[in-house]
Amino acid sequence: MSATEDEITGWFASQSKLPPEDFPIGIGDDMAQIRLGNETVLITTDMLLDGLHFDLRNATLRQVGYKAMAVSLSDCAAMATVPLAAVVSVGLPKSFGTKELKELHSGIISAGNKFACALVGGDITRWKCENPFVINVAMLSKPAENGPLKRSGAKVGDSICVTGSLGGAGFGKHLGFEPRVREALKIAQMVKVNSMIDISDGLSSDLNRICQQSGVGAVIEAAQIPISNEAKKTDSPLNCALNDGEDFELLFTLSEKEWPKLSNQWKERTTLTRIGTINDTGKMQIKMHDGRVNDLEAEGYNHLSR
Question: What pTM does this model have?
């Protein structure tokens, strides 16, 4: 049986011998952190494939360019960092030319301009036949005053919170979402956040990453999970909210006393919802509407599944 994405990432991390004084954050978080003299920079990279992360039969190249940039911007949000610049590489089908590249560029720029993140370079290559289109973004960011935030800092007793609503990405949300960069920076400025991640692979999987890397457990309440209008159209709205992925909302934990402070002072349009509590059980659970407490499996998207 093939290893899961988290298992192989953990193995990569175990093989890494990077000195922490030069690389404060290494393999296993949303961005890696590199020390450059007295300053540090963070870096992330994301590769998107036609037929998997988007479908060019019904998505425009402008939408694809926007999404590719927005996915990496969401990594910056996940650690409450400030985006700086990006380079973009593309593998083009044989039939793509100048027109297609300009349309793609317009989408990339439209996403970057929202957060003053410049496109500073990249690479273009072309398949010899009509192979699928591929786009990869590598992005640099800098720590904010209270960052960067990591996945590994959740503490027993923390409140578990999310921005926005979850589920239903397949209805088109995944092509036009707003990276929560501003929200992340605002939250980190207002209160002490112990852990944060963006929900790219699904609430169940990304909460599991916080639990695994923090050495804690969690219980969430089904009745408190904010389910999107798109997910409510499906046969299983709760399952969509737990496992669909590509929500690109923030999932974060903070002490029980900090949540009322944040909730009461939050004036932004994006909603914040407390959905559960970090505990010391070492496992994830969900309290259902009828009061039953069930084990919660990490059943979101796995990039290495077949």
Answer: 0.93
